[in-house]
Amino acid sequence: MDSPPPIIDSCKLLFYASNEDDVTFTDRISLFVGGSGDELKPIGEVQNLAISRTYYEPHEFLLMFCKEDWAVKGVIPFTTIEEAKTKAEKGYNGISSKWKMSPYNEEDIDDFLRDEYEVDPKSEWWTTICSFCGRKDTEFSRLLEGKHAVICEGCVNKFYKVFNENA
Fold first, then answer.
1. Which terminus of the chain has a smaller tally of CB atoms within 10 A, N or C?
2. Cα-based torsion angle of the residue sequence 117, 121, 127, 131 in order, rounded to the nearest 10 degrees
3. CA 156/CA 166 separation, integer angstroms
4. What are the residue boundaries of the structural domains of the chain, listed by start?
5. pLDDT at 57 over 70
6. Side-chain half-sphere of 17: how many Cα atoms within 13 Å?
7. Measured in whole angstroms, how far is the alpha carbon of residue 148 from the centre of its chain?
8. Does residue 111 contact residue 105 with C-beta atoms inside 8 Å?
9. pTM for the structure as a whole
10. HEC letters along the chain
11. pLDDT tens digits for 70-103?
12. Do 73 and 33 contact (CB within 8 A), yes or no?
């Protein structure tokens, strides 16, 4: 098993485990995934599990179902680490003895964020900010994301009005 990165899908790794030969997949976890317009399908068996803490909601823990390369296939939120571990055991009998604590310290995490995410670890890098008005994602209900910019619903409406007035 390759070690997981210190940050998985913008969440800080706390614990990780691999689905090894002595772990039995029970299929007792109801997690369905699918893309936009796709039919939802059960996630099925995965190679790795991780428990992480979100930056946006620091009191929320995610049980992440990951492929061999630690790419996330699905997540279930929990309020405690123990709840996440209990749920994992229901779907992967024997996984409880496989959990390992994240080997990364804060300096490792900060370096990873600078090098891989290209963000200042001391900033609120996880928030989405409208590229035009500067409002945070908590201040608007919908947004459009482009390759290099994000625009909130308020700015779209404002630009629409300006463009229609001058047409």
1. C
2. -70
3. 16
4. 7-117, 127-167
5. yes
6. 21
7. 21
8. no
9. 0.76
10. CCCCCCEECCEEEEEEEECCCCCEECCCCCCEECCCCCCCEECCCCCEEEEEEECCCCCCEEEEEECCCCCEEEEEEECCHHHHHHHHHHHEECHHHHCEECCCCHHHHHHHHHHHHCCCCCCCCCCCECCCCCCEHHHCCCEEECCCCEEEHHHHHHHHHHHHHCC
11. 999 999 999 999 999 999 999 999 999 999 999 9
12. yes
Closest CA to 135 of 106, 164, 155, 115: 155
pLDDT at 35: 64
Asked if pLDDT for residue 119 goes beyond 70, the answer is yes
Hunting for tokens 């996880």 — which residue is that? 126
Tokens at 136, concatenated = 């945070």
Q: Does position 36 have pLDDT exceeding 70, yes or no?
A: no
